[in-house]
Amino acid sequence: MLAEKFNTFLFDLDGVIYLEGKVLPGVLESLQQLREDQKHIRFLTNDPRPERSEMAEKLRSIGIEVDQKEIVTSGWASAQFLKQESIENVFVVGSQSLTTELQNAGLICVTEDQAEAVVVGSDIDVGFRDVYMACMQIHGGAQFIATNVDPTFPTSKGPAPATGSVVAAIKTAVSRPPIVIGKPEAYMFDAALKGLDKTRAVMIGDTPESDIQGAINTGIASVLVKSDQHNGHPASLENGHNADYTITSLRELFTRI
């Protein structure tokens, strides 16, 4: 069984654990079996808007047992990176929950004073003034940190702008690229794997460009979840790198060799 090959399982959320707010078939029993087998589980999301506590409550509301420490958001991972770099004060472009997540990590979030770093997330209330102020902070010497660079997220009315769209606006104005923390960059995966055995870890996701490429960048195995319930992502990356395994449901973790 695939499940026997690994000790640590990193799961993407949207499209793997749930879809349109509903838990996907086979997820609850598969996660329960992994826990009974004493496997380590982490849930990874590029969404920087919620706090980990909010994401934990969302998962519990659809029947998924989870500890907040098992959740890795791109916002939380960004906070860990900033602490590692000994950065103390930041200017935030994003949700109030992203600000709170950074503050929970001991960072000081400034609005007018010069910051050591600008942290870019996304939120429905982000406006031109936020982009303008971020650019002025970067021109003043602040590091440019992107929680992720996903350009859009799906809605029933079509793709909506996500963090990558905000990052692109700032990048255009300051003429420099950001340091990117979220998938597919290795930093987010390394933060998730801290204290765990990387050699027997696997990433399970439905998006080759972020989930599978991130696993490749980190040097861990990968499983692509591909089924008719998903939005038809290509099965492999343009660079020819494929997932190590392809499944149509998490149930196959216990049936595939």
Could you characterize the architecture of this molecule?
The protein is of the alpha/beta class and 257 residues long. The protein has 2 domains: 117 residues, Rossmann fold; 100 residues, HAD superfamily/HAD-like (Rossmann fold), CATH 3.40.50. Helices cover 34% and strands 20% of the residues. The protein has 9 helices and 15 strands. The longest helix has 12 residues.
What's the layout of helices and strands?
Layout: H1 2-5, E1 8-12, E2 18-19, E3 22-23, H2 27-36, E4 40-45, H3 52-61, E5 71-73, H4 74-84, E6 89-93, H5 96-104, E7 108-109, E8 117-120, H6 128-139, E9 143-146, E10 152-153, E11 160-161, H7 163-174, E12 179-180, H8 186-193, E13 201-205, H9 208-218, E14 221-225, E15 245-247
Parallel strand pairs: 1-4, 1-13, 4-5, 6-7, 6-8, 8-9, 9-12, 13-14, 14-15
Antiparallel strand pairs: 2-3, 10-11
Helix pairs in contact: 4-8, 6-7, 8-9
Any key phrases for this structure?
single chain; 257 residues; alpha/beta; Rossmann fold; six-stranded parallel β-sheet; five-stranded parallel β-sheet; 9 helices; 15 strands; 34% helix; 20% strand; elongated
Summarize the structure in short:
It contains 9 helices and 15 strands.
Q: Mind telling me which CATH architecture of the largest domain this is?
A: 3-Layer(aba) Sandwich
β-strand percent reads: 15-25%
Give the spatial strand order of the biggest sheet: 5-4-1-13-14-15
Query: How many domains would you count in the coordinates?
Result: 2
**What is the fold named in CATH at topology level of the largest domain?**
Rossmann fold
Structural class assignment = alpha/beta
Instruction: Identify the CATH homologous superfamily of the largest domain.
Output: HAD superfamily/HAD-like
Task: Report the span from N to C terminus.
Answer: 4 Å
Cα shape: elongated
Order of secondary-structure elements: HEEEHEHEHEHEEHEEEHEHEHEE
Overall mean pLDDT score?
Answer: 93
